[in-house]
Amino acid sequence: xxxxxxxxxxESLELFxxxxxxTYGKDFRKYGKAHLKRRxxxxxxxxxxxxxxxxxEDVIKNESxxxxxxxxxxxxxxxxxxxxxxxxxxHQFLIQEPDKKPLKIWISACASGEEAYSVLMMLEHFDIPxxxxxxxxxNPIIVEKASKGILETTYIKEFLKNLGATNFNLDFYKxxxxxxxxYYLKEEFLKKITFETHNLMYEHExxxxxxxxxxxxxxxxxxDLQNQVINNLTMSLNKEGILCLGAKESLRFMDSYPMYxxxxxxxxxxxxx
Length: 273
Ligand SMILES: C[S@@+](CC[C@H](N)C(=O)[O-])C[C@H]1O[C@@H](n2cnc3c(N)ncnc32)[C@H](O)[C@@H]1O
Prior knowledge:
- The chain has two domains: 3-74; 84-272, 3-Layer(aba) Sandwich (Rossmann fold), CATH 3.40.50.150.
- A seven-stranded mixed sheet has the order 6-2-1-7-8-10-9. It has a three-stranded antiparallel sheet with strand order 3-5-4.
- The protein is an alpha/beta fold.
- It has eleven helices and ten strands.
- It is globular.
């Protein structure tokens, strides 16, 4: 397939995003154009569409084709203890004030759940009191998967490497059972996490949190959507609550930046003043 066939103009991209929103109510209009084009090209090649027009027609007519495209757009890549040193820094900060009230935690854009499991493992291992852990993502299929507490065996080596790269000395097998070729987060831990579908684009509808993780999702948004999301998260945080972003993300140029102090610049840990 010649590359020219995969060309997508900004104008046809915008029209397609409008049609998707009208037809399915899913709003990608403020996602980064370069990211969307990459994903659309990937989909076109994978599903062997002759050109962008053919893909648009199929996606608007057939919900199942839209669903496949949606899965492609949502990029559910994640890891257990992704960026191990981030977890060390977060832990260091959390133990500074040992008499704090139990934490209310929100792991947003949690993908298949590994980030929520990691936070839970860290809190349990160090006996850091917490009241609740809410894990959300806008993709209902991935939330369903996350709620099962399963780790794919394919990634276990990588996950154990991440865990080993922390100074936590944490026993993986205290948390996971191995059955039917898969690792399962033990029920006693899994039941401590609540999983829900939630779109970061819209107003928060949850209570006041002490710790929010929103990692590796803002990178897919245009600047004004990033601002809107950060504003929503800021409203959801208690005074002195902690906000954690992904390694390639920053509060630095966001409207809400003056409302935070930076706890760790490299690991993108911020505290609401
Ligand atoms: C690359 S993953 C990041 C997972 C995890 N936070 C981490 O850092 O490993 C991005 C996740 O953001 C979710 N996502 C994308 N747009 C979203 C939105 N508007 N609201 C909530 N989640 C969204 C995707 O479904 C995907 O699971």
